[in-house]
Amino acid sequence: xxxxxxxxxxxxxxxxxxxxAVARTSTGPxxxxxxxxxxxxxxxxxxxxxxxxxxxxxxxxxxxxxxxQDDSLLSFVKALPQAWPFAVPFLSxxxxxxxxxxxxxxxxxxxxxxxxxxxxxxxSPLGTMGAVISMKGTIKSRNALLDIGASGxxxxxxVAIPVLFVGLMQSEVHATSGPALQEGRSxxxxxxxxxxxxxxxxxxxxxLGPAAMAGWAGLLITAFNLFPVGQLDGGHVAYALFGKxxxxxxxxxxxLMLALFLGNVAYFTRHFRAEGLPGALSAAVANGMxxxxxFGVVYxxxxxxxxxxxxxxxxxxxxxxxxxxxxxxxxxxxxxxxTPFGTY
Length: 344
Fold this sequence. Notes:
Blueprint: H1 43-63, H2 73-79, H3 84-107, E1 111-112, E2 116-119, E3 128-132, E4 135-136, H4 142-170, E5 172-175, E6 181-183, H5 187-197, E7 204-207, H6 210-225, H7 233-242, H8 246-274, H9 280-305, H10 319-335, E8 341-343
Antiparallel strand pairs: 1-4, 2-3, 5-7, 6-8
Helix pairs in contact: 1-3, 3-4, 3-6, 4-5, 4-6, 4-7, 4-10, 6-10, 7-10, 8-9
């Protein structure tokens, strides 16, 4: 996500929700040529990335079982490398996403920093809040905006889809009994699962292995980022395609998040009560909470960065990029998970 200040000449950092992020740009004078870019700073970026690697490996112990000699902290630390089947593919997806944005920005002469990864051990089941990139300069044309906005999600998907497919092939199918925590299911996920696993017998389900969890997490992050609202990646893609009309569409897309939360509460309250599950309402709210949280995060972003997308210079998307924009927004539909994760 980027957050452009119309009359600002300096860049500031932005998150794109998950998850992964692109940074904010300004719309002042034209961006300097690539040859005039400031020296690339990397020490702080490297330090944060190393901390994020450790944090993601810690999170990976939830998804990739590790064997320890005893319950001591030292034994746990020694066993951390065993979490690589989740941590390595998941970090690869994040790196592809961030450097997709980075190289696209540099190609268009927009000065961009290396990604600042955000470690979040223990609190996040994924071990990170993603990353931010600081960008300074102008995204001048719709073509450039489309390239920078779409490059991250598409690069991330290029890694996440094969990781998920291979991970699904390695996952096992077992019988289910009673309520359990279940991953969100998008149209693309269900298609990949059908191809990789085949028909699943009644009363059975796929129990995702660590690589499959990493690929699934990559789809979830990309779905959040592709929401066509504000300064998220999907907001940039939609603005490049629709122009000023996107400001109206963005408001509707934002309230769709709230509608998804309310829909989850209504559906699961009835479902859990019919199943006789104690605390049906609180369980239903928990299932919809990711959408309420995301609605609040985006609301704060819009308050800080403005509800209207910063304009580009006059001009339309080239035919090839128009097709890429349409395909990218179709991916959003295919990746949307009505219930990102919860009890079923």
